[in-house]
Amino acid sequence: MVAELVETLGDQVLGEVLDLARYASDASPYRMIPSAVVVAEDLDTVIGVLAYAHTHRRSVVFRAAGTSLSGQSQTDDLLVDVRKHWGGFEILDDGKTVRARPGAIIGHINAALKKHQRVLGPDPASSNVACVGGVVSNNASGMAAGTAHSSYATVRSMTLVLPNGTTVDTAAPDAERRFHDAAPELAAGLLTIRDRIRADTELATRLRHKYEIKNTNGYRLVAFLDADSPLEIFRRLVIGSEGTLAFIAEVVFDTVQLGALHTTALLLFPDLRGAADAVEHFVAAGARAVELMDAPTLRLSADKPRAPASWATLTDRCASLLVEFRTADPRSVAEVQSRAQSIVDGLVLLEPAEFTSDDDLAEFYWWVRGSLMAGLGASRPPGTTLIVEDVCVRPEHLAEASRAIAALQGHYGYPPGVAGHASAGNLHFILALDASSAADRTRYEAFMDDLAHLVVDRFDGSLKAEHGTGRNMTPFLELEWGRAVVDLMWKIKSLADPHMVLAPGVMLNRDNTANMSNLKTMPAIETIADACFECGFCEQVCPSRDITTTPRQRISLRREMERHPHGSPTLDTLLRQYEYDAVQTCAGDSSCAAACPVGIDTGALMKDFRTASNTPHASRVAVSMARHWSLVERVARTTLRIGARMGTRRMTVLTALARRAVGNELVPSWIDAMPTAAPSMPSTTRSGAHAVYLPACINRIFGPSPNGDDEHVVAALTEVSARAGKPVWIPDDVAGTCCATVWHSKGYTDANTYTARHLVDDLWRWSEQGRLPIVVDATSCTLGVSREILPYLDEKRRMHHTRLQIVDSLTWAAKHLLPTLRVSAPLSSMAVHPTCSARTLELGADLMTIAAALAETVDVPASTTCCGFAGDRGFLHPELTESATRAEAAEVILAGSAAVTSSNRTCEVGLEHATGRTYESIVVALARATRTPSER
Prior knowledge:
Elements: H1 2-9, E1 13-14, H2 17-22, E2 36-39, H3 43-56, E3 60-63, E4 78-81, E5 89-92, E6 97-100, H4 106-113, E7 118-119, H5 132-137, H6 151-154, E8 155-161, E9 167-169, H7 175-182, H8 184-199, H9 201-210, H10 223-226, H11 230-238, E10 247-254, E11 256-257, E12 261-269, H12 272-284, E13 289-294, H13 295-299, E14 319-327, H14 333-345, H15 359-369, H16 371-379, E15 385-392, H17 398-411, E16 419-421, E17 426-433, H18 438-458, H19 470-473, H20 477-481, H21 483-496, H22 527-530, H23 551-562, H24 569-584, H25 591-595, H26 602-613, H27 616-627, H28 629-646, H29 648-662, E18 691-694, H30 697-701, H31 713-723, E19 728-729, H32 741-746, H33 749-766, E20 774-776, H34 779-788, H35 795-803, E21 806-808, H36 809-817, E22 827-832, H37 836-840, H38 844-854, E23 855-859, H39 873-876, H40 878-884, H41 886-895, E24 899-902, H42 905-915, E25 920-921, H43 922-929
Parallel strand pairs: 2-4, 3-4, 18-19, 18-20, 20-21, 22-23, 22-24, 24-25
Antiparallel strand pairs: 1-2, 5-6, 6-10, 7-11, 8-9, 8-10, 12-14, 13-14, 13-16, 15-17, 16-17
Helix pairs in contact: 7-8, 8-11, 8-21, 12-17, 17-18, 23-24, 27-28, 27-33, 31-43, 36-38, 38-43
């Protein structure tokens, strides 16, 4: 099959062992190895895959972000990836509507809508990675969406591909006719079902009643009451159908107004009843979000600095509400806050509470709300996967249902913990399952059976509120809806997809044990990554996401290896393919750790693998280079000068020969955005210096872009520091010093140790034992000097390091220079690239302070992630940076800002290569903008 698909679709088809294994898992507790993966580039490919499936009696499942929790994005047949090539969106009508493709990320769209003070209605917790296709296919809602702003309520139109390959834009003037002509039996059948439902008063009333609360269990039959025409009925049915009725090629949303100002409080109650009773009052007062958390959830965060001491001693009976109001009018904030506080004054609370507009405190509260999965994920027993359950009851039953679920958890030996969207009656809780244990599978099966009966029989609730039916809930569909309604759902499926091409078994399944099949085992792997529960939150920030593997996939592949015995052909193949696809193309930038709910740094694991794979000869070469780093700098500058004369083509050949002789991980390749050689260091004096200036070795090697105006960051920082009355001193013997990142990223421990210790000795001497601050002009080097070298220092040098004042150039400029400078030549606009190191060091505010002082408008592209250069990895694997920067480059080119800046030379090189724009350090822009007319 793979060969046949390759013949038709070319390199869009993946069939290697590693590729099939990395797509076998998603965020759900299931694992299914596809027969082939198609990374579809366009609509023609999707139509071609559907045609192939029809002809060869295969089935197709579409996947975007893979963050679905119920097993709806997996298959053992054809899996089609519609994330990589399906991004992009368009803001319309001053933000009132958005046109988006299925791979567009919800968080990116909301970032673009922010200036219009609007957002998409659906707001799932996975918004930073979740894609439009999955959000609509699952009828996602979220913390503030409720039923009024769910996907079903806010999607205006869609472009659909029917299973027979016909494309229909539901907003087109002739859409109804085209739909009828393409699928006459479907159109007629939908009208027949419509008439049957409307004629059955009891059923129609039941449907209306059921959908007054959140419900994503089964097809949304209320569509037959909400719409009259066949296509409009079908469009509504497709929302929440989990890819079983049609492929969603494009969506037009109506957006929701979001007040830019907030007032927020976290209220502690003696019991769940008190918390639940308060919900309706806040909803009536206009609260945008009312979130329930029980005591075990709060205790997970009791050790955080901003957590009140009382959280650690809360009893299991206690509960809390996180309540937030939003408004667009600054004049109404006080009135909203007063109205909210009046409700609080009438409540019985464990301790006094006030509504606040403090952004940091509100951010902490929301972080706590999102920490349930992280806390339980970090503490889950070894070998278990996490299952996130999602039910809904009427809000008036919230407290009773919460207590009943907690009791059921306790009965089956699961840790208690319930959180949810209280205003909607939507409850979430997490279970840990060891799928390799027959006893644990039996326990889980019995729990799910009791849970289903509890929610349906006692509360007449929804077995899935917003996470979709998936394989997880298909056996209980009939329990909630009854045989007659489920038969109608089967009829819809057979009308739309008579050959069962689209995701069979996902929404409807004749197998009543489907939820217990293909459960994912979690073999133990390296400690640093074993806590991963494969949620996928890391994937969107990973530089290699579109070229090889992501952090989630790197970890799931390690688990796949552990499932195979030593010496098996499959294991040998995985190990061979893993070296490039996982280890060498990992940027090691730690962005994944920041995005991961449990803080896993997959990059650190890949560096460990590099260390293990380094040969003794390569390690000796690395140490020799570290000891003679000043010579390396001189050779590099000479090479740049020669290269400028010889041209890119010849230098590409020469560096390729050198890489073969010395090693691909030691010698960089030549790229067409290669900068000029760095000029000589400017003259400075130690006397009167306010700081030691450590120019990073990348800034001692690389000069300005050949397409720029010869402004170099070292000269610029020296100049602007003097202008601000805070001159800096560059030590005469600075050549040869290095932050050790070059060795850290490659896993060369001995070279790393030598460089780190040599550096601390120099810094200790230059700074007069820590008296003077040390300014570093590249954020990745600041990270290396301040944090990454610590494990390689002996006790004496570690003590010296604690007394060093390491200051990044962004902080130096924003806090020490800018207050005394005058911007005499402001820019109209500036695009800024915050490096991953700047994010790790939390330097974003300093970067934006400088940018805001220099330009009237400042743009950080929504798709900005690590550029993949990672020190020198972009030279070692240029394909990594080219892939990582593609989306950001498109935004930058479209925006056409007057200046493009960052704070790391190699990042700037990579971005220039991607955009064709001349990137420079923001320090250079600051120096230029603060010159007097006579200095220009």
